[in-house]
Structure formats: C-alpha cells, structure tokens
C-alpha cells in the first residue's frame, strides 16, 4: 500500500524515490537551510512533501542543469521560494531540430579549432 502524497517520508523512502544515497540527503541538509525534516527520537528524519519537492529541485539543478552547490545556494537566496519550486530551466527549453543542428555545427567547429591548437602545442 503506497503512502499518500501528503504523508511524511523517511530518509530511506526519499533516497529511494530520488535514487540518491542517504548520505547525500544528509549533506544537502547542511548546505540548504530550506530542507528541514522533522526529527524524532534517535534522530530519525521524516521529510515533508515540501522537503521532497525542494530536494527534487536541488537534484535537477545539480545533476541535470550542471549547477554547483554554491550556484544552487545563490539561486535559492536570490529567488527565494520561487526558485525552489520552479521546474528545471533545462527542462523548460524547447529546441528545434534546426537549432540543434546549428549548435552541433558550432561545437564541431570549436572542437576542430581545439584539436588544431593541441597539435600546435604538442609540436
């Protein structure tokens, strides 16, 4: 039987849901003050649905969008709650095949230039 979406979740449930190790969640708690799980006897953590949403947002910014911890902290500080609840910027971007083709061509051009520089440096 699955829990309600409004139910509190243990650290193991959240870690499984986000496919992250528990120690990463504990670490993020130290870096992001907005994550405040309720702690019961023995320090057992219970995450509110809002905590899980914030963790999911942090995960997207770090892993999908390439932000650093400090970058995410700055984003949250500047954007407040809105930054924590928005969908991932990378997920919002829609590109056309023509845009993708143009970007790929530009990247191939840059790669070619870098390879030329490497051969010059190696001599």
Account of the 3D structure:
By secondary structure, this protein is mainly alpha-helical. The protein has 6 helices and 3 strands; from the N terminus they run E-H-H-E-E-H-H-H-H. It folds into 2 domains: 1-92, Multidrug-efflux Transporter Regulator, Chain: A, Domain 2 (Orthogonal Bundle), CATH 1.10.1660.10; 93-123. It has a 3-stranded antiparallel sheet with strand order 1-3-2. A hairpin with a 5-residue loop joins strand 2 and strand 3. The chain starts with 8 loop residues before the first strand and ends with a helix.
Radius of gyration: 20 Å
Name the CATH architecture of the largest domain.
Answer: Orthogonal Bundle
Task: Tell me, briefly, the overall form.
Answer: elongated
Q: Considering DSSP H and I runs of 4 or more, what fraction of the residues is helical?
A: 55-70%
| Low-confidence segments | 87-94
Number of β-strand runs? 3
Mean pLDDT across all amino acids: 84
Under the CATH scheme, which class of the largest domain? Mainly Alpha
Summarize the structure.
The protein has helices at residues 11-18, 22-31, 49-64, 69-85, 89-92, 97-122, and strands spanning 9-10, 38-39, 45-47.
């Amino acid at each position: 039987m699955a829990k309600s979406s409004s139910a509190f979740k243990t650290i193991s449930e959240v870690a499984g849901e986000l496919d992250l190790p528990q120690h990463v969640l504990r670490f993020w708690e130290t870096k992001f003050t907005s994550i405040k799980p309720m702690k019961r006897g023995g320090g057992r953590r219970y995450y509110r649905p809002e905590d899980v949403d914030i963790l999911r947002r942090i995960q997207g910014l770090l892993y999908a969008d390439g932000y650093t911890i400090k970058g995410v902290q700055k984003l949250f500080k500047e954007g407040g709650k809105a930054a924590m609840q928005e969908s991932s910027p990378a997920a919002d971007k829609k590109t056309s095949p023509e845009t993708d083709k143009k970007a790929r061509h530009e990247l191939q051009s840059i790669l070619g230039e870098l390879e030329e520089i490497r051969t010059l440096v190696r001599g």
